[in-house]
Task: inverse folding
């Protein structure tokens, strides 16, 4: 992936993180598969129950990447949100927007720690916040990942065995039917 694409994905994820906090929502994990340097799209986590269902939902983010034959993926998540939703210990700084860039040969973890600054309550009564970004540690090749995040990366590069004329298209439709928000780029629309 070239630097311009990486910088655009990081900026996009920081903006999405900020927008979620402004709406009083916890940021949801999102995967961004790439094929030969071209972004396939963004797949946001479906609504999930705390515990095993949340872990399964995170792992299932890999389905579109696998169906597309992705050679790279970027997965973004909030440390505290994933730990809380999955019932796991916090790994790394919290709050923190994490982005991991992975290929089948390994991954590099990028952490963007922040504090959540309260903002006046919204008219709907939701508590809202905005991130104040703190200095980021350097990229961490092979950095420690929560188990469902690591599994999502692994399965992103495991070909799906679907007996269907359009495995990518059917995977996208099934993911959408399950409640994942799937936004594909024009080049990869089934």
Result:
């Amino acid at each position: 992936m070239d630097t311009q694409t990486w910088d655009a994905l990081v900026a996009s994820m920081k903006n999405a993180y900020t927008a979620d906090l402004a709406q009083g929502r916890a940021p949801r994990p999102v995967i961004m598969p790439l094929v030969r340097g071209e972004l396939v799209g963004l797949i946001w986590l479906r609504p999930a129950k705390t515990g095993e269902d949340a872990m399964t939902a995170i792992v299932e983010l890999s389905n579109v990447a696998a169906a597309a034959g992705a050679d790279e993926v970027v997965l973004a998540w909030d440390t505290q949100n994933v730990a809380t939703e999955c019932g796991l210990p916090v790994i790394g700084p919290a709050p923190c927007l994490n982005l991991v860039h992975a290929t089948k040969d390994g991954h590099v973890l990028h952490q963007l720690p922040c504090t959540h600054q309260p903002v006046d309550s919204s008219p709907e009564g939701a508590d809202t916040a905005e991130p104040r970004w703190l200095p980021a540690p350097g990229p961490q090749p092979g950095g420690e990942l929560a188990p469902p995040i690591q599994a999502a990366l692994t399965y992103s590069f495991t070909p799906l065995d679907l007996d269907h004329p359009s495995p990518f298209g059917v995977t996208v439709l099934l993911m959408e039917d399950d409640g994942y928000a799937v936004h594909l780029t024009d080049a990869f629309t089934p």
